[in-house]
Amino acid sequence: MEHVKQKGVPQNQYTMCWLDYKRCEDEEYLKKVIPFISNIFILDNNYYFRNAALELKEAIKNIFGVEPNIQTTSYLDFHHGTLIGKLGNEVIEKFLEKEEKEQIGNEGFLIKVVATKTQNIILLVAKTESGIIYGTFELINRLRVKSNLSSLYIIENPKAPLRVINHWDNMDGSIERGYAGSSIFFSNNRVKRSLKRVRDYARLLASIGINGVVINNVNVRGKAIWLITPKYLPELSEIAETFRLYGIKLYISINFASPIYIGGLSTADPLDPDVFKWWQETVKTIYSYIPDFGGFLVKADSEFNPGPYVYGRSHADGANMLARTLLPYGGVVIWRAFVYNCLQDWRDTKTDRAKAAYENFKPLDGEFLDNVVLQIKYGPMDFQVREPVSPLFGGMEKTNQMIELQITQEYTGQQIHLCYLGTLWKEILEFDTYCKGKGSYIKRIVDGSLFGWKYCGFAGVSNIGSSINWTGHDLAQANLWTFGKLAWNPDRSVEDIAKEWILLTFGDDKKVVENILWMLLNSHRIYEKYTTPLGLGWMVNPGHHYGPNPEGYEYSKWGTYHRADTKAIGVDRTSKGTGYTLQYHPHWQKIFDDIEKCPENLLLFFHRVPYTYRLKSGKTLIQFMYDSHFEGAEEVDVLIQKWEELRGKIDEDIFNRVSERLKMQKEHAIEWRDVINTYFYRKTGIPDEKGRLIYP
Ligand SMILES: CO[C@H]1[C@H](O)[C@@H](O)[C@H](O)O[C@@H]1C(=O)O
């Protein structure tokens, strides 16, 4: 569903987001930088290094108006220019210290400046093809923000091994939970023939350090089941080749029952030898087309998708069977933990959906093969505006894990509302699970350092589509950017990450940077205030999930209830209630169990609370609800005002597009405010202390 029509924009037109290179107007900087960029030397005439050199050349041409020569050389005859080379090359190594060489990891890179009387050289060095492309974009971006060359020195390695974007793209071109147009990969049940946009997408992703892409929806239905067959593999191999140039591996979501659908077998039982053989053959075929194929993403026994439970087998049986077929080629199985009873009876108060993933997977800890990774949504429910972190993180020490974040804004305003997610993600990543004592942060679990995992990392559900600006809301580009940057280095501050995005996207005007930064950093807080604060969640319209509906999910089968009556609201998930808190390590169990200690922004997630309960501020719960909704809706005006102050300083098309969305945000925030306030007023009969208008 795309809420805003793009008037008169041809399908094949689009901007390049933070890679839209603008001319540097600073003559001083240009003068300083010219000697370092007027030549580009490549030492190995390798296809990938050459591509990196071409990227750099194109960027320099656009930014500085000079066209560097690309020269292939094998000996030391250069004095001025940028030298792109691979670790191990003799000429390159002359410039490096031993420790420097040791510090460059597989996907990492080094940027170092040599400035002497006779030499003005920027060295860009990596161990691998992917490292060089990441380093190239980093160098380009450093030049764009006018970094001081005399102090430019960077050695970077990604913290997490897997940094993967998940597309929920269907083969008819639609995107499940997509708010930015249609798929750039598929249309009319075909793979799209033009690779230009895919290539530009690969460039965007490489510039934020992504190394994997799953191009089809985890709900694998119809024609998509056949993507793993020669019917589609020739075209997928072209997509894979395009991504490969930018250090990105292709993955495919599969249907667990494929042996039945495609192979004509009578079963998909993971322990059946014929099923194994069928997968083995299928995987062999895939690798004959895509030699560096990343692996499978699997949504099994989840929301009507088939899985091992159908045959009385465990998720470990299912995942391991696939893992064995992929192992000889270095492929992985990314197995989703999003397993719960989606046919719950709302009258059943014993079953708690929040407990489901842990109940299904915790008993299997230690049973998964090494090339299986469990992909876990950040919270126990489903990407609500706020949830506690899933207790599976730090709950399965012997199982590789990835955290799944939703870049697309399903429950966070669908790219109509401005809702920057970096602030929320950072809080999640900094959460200390205490699984190995103090300091057992989520970020250290998913980057592999806490348990020494080889396969682990970040998965982000894509927010892009065919729209002119890729993400519908122009400022939603910051969410994609931030996902990549946090996956690369979760220790970075989001202020820093967001600011870098603004500088590269909008330039360095002080007011522009200041205002957009404020808008981004405050937007999730504001959205939370006028929608569902205190960890409440789920008060959305069923199906499409946009806009308020306080009981939209109250009598449904999805296990998503707040059980509000006239006295209290929320589910008691403490050890005395559904027992959900028992899934956490004792440190958190005690805190979440205690209504006085429970972080207030999660109060209604963990507790059933009377409306007259007093919060730490002294306010009653009901008064907090009213205040939060009035204030939140009001604060949208600040977002609008901050944007309005930038009129004339921002490209007009972008300015107008964002203005239009902010206007809709305001209208819809008012709708949220009034519907939720009226709901609570009608339930409780308690008036607003401040006498503001609540519709009776
Ligand atoms: C792809 O399906 C999605 C579905 O659209 C979304 O509403 C649900 O909550 O999560 C599912 C999942 O994550 O599998």
TrEMBL record:
The active site is at E303, D382, E410. Transmembrane segments: none annotated. It holds the Pfam family Glyco_hydro_67M. It comes from the Bacteria. Residues 145-470 form the Glycosyl hydrolase family 67 catalytic domain. It catalyses: Hydrolysis of (1->2)-alpha-D-(4-O-methyl)glucuronosyl links in the main chain of hardwood xylans. Coiled coil: none annotated. GO terms for molecular function: alpha-glucuronidase activity; xylan alpha-1,2-glucuronosidase activity. The keyword Protein biosynthesis does not apply. Residues 17-139 form the Alpha glucuronidase N-terminal domain. GO terms for biological process: glucuronoxylan catabolic process. It is an enzyme of class 3 (hydrolase). Residues 471-692 form the Glycosyl hydrolase family 67 C-terminal domain. Its EC number is 3.2.1.131. Keywords: Carbohydrate metabolism, Glycosidase, Hydrolase, Polysaccharide degradation, Xylan degradation. One of its GO terms (cellular component) is extracellular region. Homodimer. Belongs to the glycosyl hydrolase 67 family. This is Xylan alpha-1,2-glucuronidase. It comes from Caldicellulosiruptor saccharolyticus (strain ATCC 43494 / DSM 8903 / Tp8T 6331).
